[in-house]
């Protein structure tokens, strides 16, 4: 199963340098709406089987044009929602950088718990569980490998990618997830394969299904020794 993790397009809070968190009504700005429209061309003829989305407005707005073009219903999943930043929600980033917790978020995020909100370790656990559950459901529904898209938030994507890389959560700040970027993970019974991170190009063109074994003997989910032959 292969998931495209799409970060929402640029929002009004992004340009205001405010930590939106789960604030209601945070919409895309003009550039973000353009990014949402461009998503149709960027996906191209990839056979997307499902579109899953965080409940927040900026994510729904990002995938609405694509879902309409594909003739798919958007499935909302709370497991892909933004981090609950608690008392940090709605505050200026410039103010938050002066908080003692900021240094913990940067250097030791596995220990970071936002006052009145959730911890980043909790975020990773519930987001990875949500992705895995959709993988399981879609595998049953489509009888094997399927390609699907999940629209969510920057820190959520970074946490899921870190898990797929086998990277401790304390290293998740090494992963980038820009607005409207796509990161791609293929899950197999043995391990995840990270195929793209922070893709912002015109077209997501690489093959996004399980590659054929070059010798017909490599077990499914095994990495090809020496690297891909493509």
From TrEMBL:
Organism: Mycobacterium shimoidei
PANTHER family (alphabetical): FRUCTOSE-2,6-BISPHOSPHATASE TIGAR
InterPro entries assigned: His_Pase_superF_clade-1, His_PPase_superfam, Phosphoglycerate_Mutase, Phosphomutase_MSMEG4193_put
One Pfam family, short name: His_Phos_1
Record's keyword terms, sorted: Hydrolase
Protein name: Phosphoglycerate mutase
Hydrolase keyword on record: yes
GO annotation (BP), single: regulation of pentose-phosphate shunt
GO molecular function: fructose-2,6-bisphosphate 2-phosphatase activity
Transcription among keywords: no
Chain positions covered by the region annotation Disordered: 210-230
NCBIfam families: MSMEG_4193 (TIGR03848)
Gene Ontology CC annotation, any one: cytosol
């Amino acid at each position: 199963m292969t998931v495209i993790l799409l970060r929402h397009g640029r929002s009004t809070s992004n340009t205001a340098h405010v930590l939106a968190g789960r604030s209601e009504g945070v919409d895309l700005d003009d550039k973000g709406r353009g990014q949402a429209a461009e998503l149709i061309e960027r996906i191209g003829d990839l056979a997307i089987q499902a579109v899953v989305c965080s409940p927040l407005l900026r994510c729904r707005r990002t995938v609405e044009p694509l879902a309409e073009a594909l003739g798919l219903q958007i499935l909302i999943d709370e497991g892909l929602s933004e981090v609950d930043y608690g008392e940090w929600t709605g505050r200026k980033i410039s103010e938050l950088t002066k908080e003692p917790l900021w240094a913990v978020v940067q250097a030791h995020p596995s220990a970071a718990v936002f006052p009145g909100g959730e911890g980043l370790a909790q975020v990773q656990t519930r987001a990875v569980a949500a992705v895995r559950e959709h993988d399981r459901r879609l595998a049953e529904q489509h009888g094997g490998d399927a390609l699907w898209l999940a629209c969510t938030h920057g820190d959520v994507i970074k946490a899921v990618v870190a898990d797929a890389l086998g990277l401790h959560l304390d290293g998740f700040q090494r992963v980038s997830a820009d607005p409207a970027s796509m990161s791609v993970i293929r899950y197999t019974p043995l391990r995840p394969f990270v195929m793209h991170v922070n893709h912002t190009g015109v077209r997501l063109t690489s093959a996004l299904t399980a590659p054929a074994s070059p010798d017909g003997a490599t077990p499914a989910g095994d990495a090809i020794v020496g690297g891909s032959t493509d």
